[in-house]
Amino acid sequence: MIEPLFIITNNPMSKSAFENKYVVEYIENGTQIDILKKARDYVHLGNRLLTHPLMGSVKPNETPYRTICISKKREERVDFGSLDIIESAIATTEKFIRDFNTPNWSEKILLDFQVIDLDLIAHAIT
Questions:
Q1: Hey, is 74 helix, strand or coil?
Q2: Highest mean pLDDT among 33-37, 60-64, 98-102
Q3: Which residues span the domain enclosing 54?
Q4: Residue 126 and residue 112: Cα distance in Å, rounded?
Q5: What is the per-residue pLDDT across 110-124, written as a single tens digit (0 to 9) for each?
Q6: Which of 23, 61, 93, 99 is 20 to 30 A from 11 (CA-CA)?
């Protein structure tokens, strides 16, 4: 990725992988909704989404991890495209969490979801 960015995540693998190269806002024990709402807060401040908040094929109720890249540069105006995407992602995630059970995953499977989330972001920014 060419544009300067920072990362918001609740994934400890993403934090470890990127904290030496990027600013990482790590929300320990944060939910996906926490990550999405934090990204929305930055969009309201004039930052833009640089990665889609729901990229990948893992449904929001299936994984607890989310990593999002945000532009470092703040514009004077809100990017309404980013705002529309993040609001839609929040609504979709809330719907999936409300309407479908989230499995009680084992530690091994949770580690697999961390790897998937990390891999998605790593490929987006390299």
A1: coil
A2: 33-37
A3: 5-125
A4: 21
A5: 999 999 999 999 999
A6: 99
